[in-house]
Write a structure and sequence with these properties.
The chain has helices at about 15-35, 85-90, 90-105, 115-120, 135-140, 165-180, 185-195, 200-205, 215-230, 235-240, 245-260, 260-280, 285-290, 295-310, 310-325; strands at about 1-10, 40-45, 50-55, 60, 65, 75, 105-110, 130, 145-150, 155, 160-165, 205-210. By secondary structure, it is of the alpha/beta class. This is Transcriptional regulator, AraC family with amidase-like domain.
């Protein structure tokens, strides 16, 4: 069971916690329907275990005090309204806890001015980050060692995710759900929580170390190679040979590093490419199938439906309706 901890901070903006929490619950529920028995442990934690007042006036009662919070696989830091300095001054123990979680390998997501907690903890030194546009100048002055990417709504540095807005946080969460449960569950959550078309995370985020969250550099190179050649006919035996591995060793190392077989990874890449073409081009479904490496239309359709729980034609109809709907 993976543990996700949502930090509660006095005078926080509630949406930075409630939205990803509900999205993750939706993902967990959908995964259960699809037979994926991988529950999440979702916890809220405040510095002292006492209720926290939000900017909207609502009060959140945490599950635990920070000192009692377990090691987490994923941590969410909310935004503060305008100036986060007063909260930062009271957050020494929280910053120490964030450092420990990062050292233990947790993924950490912060939104808006919540990014300041990552910067204050020293976790973003020498790394890219973004924050709410209103706080750009102060952030640059306070954290000169952080590489602020003003033109991006999302940045990723290994397992540290910064989102400039709540909408960007939703994109980060869809990406993380994809890591946890795969593309079909992520697509289901995205369609149900977002009324507009979202561009893929990889296209809108500034990323360093973003190809994977594993340390096997040869497999990283193999992932990059598969992405670059995904539209071609690929024999995995030839790919293994290209990286001086036996097929058995290549499959074993790839699965150990990514949680997927090379074939599953290639299928993911091709389906993602097909999604983008269905959204942005006027190519026929047959032409798209060929462009992503499939000559058999029936096989392509079955694979697309397996991954996204809808056919290519139905998917295009849905996204085009969102793009071009006219009020009547």
């Amino acid at each position: 069971m993976r543990t996700v901890t949502f930090l509660l901070i006095d005078q926080m903006l509630a949406t930075g916690t409630v939205l990803p929490l509900e999205m993750l619950r939706g993902a967990e529920s959908r995964a259960r329907v699809e037979g994926e028995a991988s529950p999440l442990r979702l916890l809220t934690a405040s510095l002292d275990g006492r209720p926290v007042s939000t900017r909207s006036g609502f009060s959140f009662t945490p599950d635990v005090a920070l000192a009692d919070a377990p090691d987490s696989d994923l941590v969410y830091i909310p935004a503060m309204w305008r100036n986060p300095r007063p909260a930062l001054k009271r957050s020494g123990p929280l910053l120490q806890w964030l450092r420990r979680q990062a050292e233990a390998g947790a993924a950490i997501s912060a939104v808006g001015t919540g990014v300041c907690f990552l910067a204050e903890a020293g976790l973003l030194d020498g790394k890219p980050a973004t924050t709410h546009w209103h706080y750009f100048e102060r952030f640059t002055a306070d954290y000169p060692r952080v590489k602020l990417k003003r033109q991006y709504f999302i940045t990723q540095a290994d397992k540290l995710f910064c989102a400039a807005s709540v909408n960007a946080l939703a994109d980060v969460t869809v990406y993380l759900i994809r890591q946890l449960y795969g593309p079909a569950v992520a697509s289901h959550v995205e369609r149900n929580f977002s009324h507009e078309i979202r561009r893929p995370f990889e296209e809108i985020a500034y990323s360093e170390g973003a190809v994977r969250l594993h340390p096997d550099e040869e497999i990283v190179q193999a992932q990059t190679w598969l992405k670059e050649h995904c539209s071609e006919e690929i024999r995995l035996s030839e790919v293994a040979s290209h990286f001086d591995m036996s097929v058995r060793s290549f499959n074993r190392r790839f699965k150990l590093a990514t949680g997927q077989t090379p074939l599953q990874y290639l299928q993911n890449v091709r389906v993602d490419m097909a999604r983008e073409l269905l959204q942005s081009s006027n190519l026929s479904v047959n032409e798209i199938a060929e462009k992503v490496g499939y000559q058999d239309m029936g096989h392509f359709t079955a694979l697309f439906k397996k991954f996204l729980s809808t056919t290519p034609s139905e998917y295009r109809t849905t996204v085009r309706a969102k793009l071009f709907r006219v009020n009547t």
